[in-house]
Design a protein that fits this description.
- The complex is a heterodimer of chains A (about 300) and B (about 240).
- Chain A has nine helices and seven strands.
- With about 300 residues, chain A is α+β, with helices and mostly antiparallel strands.
- Chain A is rod-shaped, with a radius of gyration of 36 Å.
- In chain B, strands 2-1-3-4-5 form a five-stranded parallel sheet, with helices on both faces. Chain B has a five-stranded antiparallel sheet with strand order 10-9-8-12-11.
- In chain B, a hairpin with a 5-residue loop joins strand 9 (about 155-160) and strand 10 (about 165).
- Classes of the chains: A alpha+beta (about 300), B alpha/beta (about 240).
């Protein structure tokens, strides 16, 4: 009976998730439950004893209580049952709590691992290692020939990296994002030289609008990586921003190799960007890549201003 | 050693030139910024070694190599390109990561020089090789190791050791670049390597049945068989 009742208690405790409770509510429930089980066991024992031996306390146990009157014996019986149950419950409780704690630690470690690798992957994908190592290589070349330009490049690179690392913040001013894009374009100019020409049409009112960090950067990077860098003579990159009907409209336009369907449409950068827009603005934001002309690509983003 | 530097970034070319200046045995004879320029320079200058960037506008370093008939020794360069690096590793191709470390450049140059036959003028003997890409696999195929070339439509199937790579060129185009002392046209669709001939048996109607080292069997046409007999009796 003891085992049965405590088992039942354990089931109830599991179902109602007592272990996640603070000590006091847990203590109350456990104490109450234990008492109930103890009494049930005791009652069952007595009933059985009564049926078998004709008295409520079994003769064997009675021999322990020789000197006590019957009421005292009963009282001791009850106390005995309560004590045994309490000890049994306490032992089980200690075991259960330790197991729970251990499981939590393991899970925590696993999560930490997953988070680190996810962060790292995100960082790597945002950092664009190809760009980074090419920039470093170009920079090294400048050190001997044009030290002033090399120093500027180091500053731009540091700013670019810092911005990338800090882009956990969701929204920044367009002004801030444009600063990052300018640094990036300066570094790419080192590589592409006269193959890259940039035209900007930024409305003053748009500069204070809030945009997801790295959004414009991703579009510009794609425009260069899949468009201008792929063309031998290079081309003109056009960046536009204006406020229209309560919305911020961003435009990135670039030439691209004709007749080639770019992998960029499925690129990770664009997918991330679309996802972030959806998370931040739901249906109120949209990103569209216009590839209707075979030799041009235009990315348009609309989001609430 | 005559070197050609191929990279779409002027700064990268400059940087590699600077590094190579530390090696007196190496003379940078030219530069190229894209595939077309590179092809022209290789034709004009016949460099012993080409430092070849992978990602260039209008075509990759791999594209260049499959287009030329006389493929020089190559050291690939890349800033960071997972796919290229994997291709390099899988196919045991020599490559350098940019920014290039001087020690690694020295090791690559040593490898180029090792086993290279140098003539009286100090010039390296050309390797007579082709670069072939077949799906994910790539090889520098030394022509003298190919036992048989077989036409397959507009392409050519090579019998090379255990491999059977497909070359993106016609048999006729290929023939123009094969040494006639070593390679002999057996029929309209096949060219064999004379060094690999093991057994020759007479066939029907004046034809010859040739067995090559490696197991290939070739039917020589009547006309070619006559030429073959003439040559071998003379030799």
């Amino acid at each position: 009976m003891g085992l049965g009742s405590t088992h039942g208690l354990r089931r109830v405790a599991a179902r109602r998730d007592w272990l996640s409770l603070a000590p006091v509510p847990l203590g109350i429930r456990v104490a109450g439950g234990t008492l109930l089980c103890a009494l049930l066991s005791c009652l069952t024992a007595m009933t059985l004893s009564q049926a078998v031996y004709g008295q409520r306390v079994a003769p064997i146990t009675q021999s322990f209580y020789r000197r006590l009157p019957p009421s005292g014996q009963l009282r001791n019986e009850v106390i005995f049952f309560v004590v045994v149950h309490a000890a049994w419950t306490a032992a089980y409780l200690a075991f259960a709590m330790q197991r729970r704690r251990h499981r939590a630690e393991v899970r925590q470690a696993q999560l930490g691992e997953a988070l680190r690798s996810a962060e790292l992957r995100l960082l790597v994908s945002q950092l664009n290692p190809h760009f980074l190592f090419n920039a470093l290589n170009g920079l090294r070349s400048l050190i001997a020939d044009d030290p002033d330009r090399a120093r500027d490049a180091v500053t731009q690179l540091a700013r670019t990296l810092r911005y990338t690392l800090a882009s956990g913040e969701d929204l920044v001013s367009l002004e801030r994002e444009l600063e990052m894009v300018e640094d990036y374009l300066a570094l790419e100019s080192m590589r592409l030289a006269e193959r890259l020409v940039v035209e900007r049409e930024i409305e003053p009112a748009a500069r204070t609008a809030r945009v997801p960090a790295m959004l414009l950067q991703t579009l510009v990077e794609n425009a260069i990586k899949h468009g201008i860098a792929e063309l031998r003579p290079g081309g003109t990159l056009r960046i536009g921003a204006r406020i229209e009907g309560g919305e911020l409209v961003l435009r990135v336009d670039n030439p691209r190799p004709a007749g080639r369907t770019p992998a960029v449409a499925e690129g990770l950068g664009l997918r991330n960007a679309t996802e972030r827009l959806r998370l931040l603005f739901g249906t109120r934001a949209a990103l569209h890549l216009d590839l209707s002309r075979p030799d041009r690509a235009t990315a348009r983003v609309r989001l609430p201003a | 050693m005559k070197a050609l530097v191929v990279d779409d970034e002027p700064l990268a070319r400059r940087e590699l030139r600077r590094l190579l200046a530390a090696f007196p045995a190496v003379e940078v004879v030219g530069e190229a910024g894209d595939v077309d320029e590179a092809r022209a320079r290789i034709d004009a200058l016949s460099p012993d070694v080409v430092f070849l960037d992978i990602q260039m506008p209008g075509g990759t370093g791999f594209d260049l190599l499959t287009q030329i008939d006389h493929v020089p020794r190559v050291v690939f360069t890349t800033a960071y390109d997972q796919y290229a690096v994997r291709a390099f590793d899988v196919n045991a191709l020599d490559y350098l990561l940019k920014p290039i470390e001087p020690e690694r450049l020295a090791a690559a140059l040593r490898k180029v020089q090792a086993g290279a036959v140098v003539d009286a003028d100090g010039r390296m003997e050309p390797l007579e090789q082709l670069f072939i890409r077949d799906g994910p696999r790539s090889w520098f195929v030394a022509l003298r190791e190919v036992s048989l070339f077989t036409a397959e439509g507009n392409y050519v199937r090579l019998a090379w050791g255990r491999e059977r790579p497909l070359l993106g060129r016609s048999l006729a185009a290929l023939e123009r670049n094969l040494d006639p002392r070593r390679f002999f046209r057996a029929s309209r669709g096949q060219i064999l390597n004379l060094d690999f001939v093991e057994q020759v048996e007479p066939g029907s109607g004046g034809r010859l049945h040739v067995q090559l080292r490696g197991g290939q069997e070739v039917e020589m046409s009547r006309r070619q068989a006559r030429l073959f007999r003439a040559r071998t009796t003379l030799a």
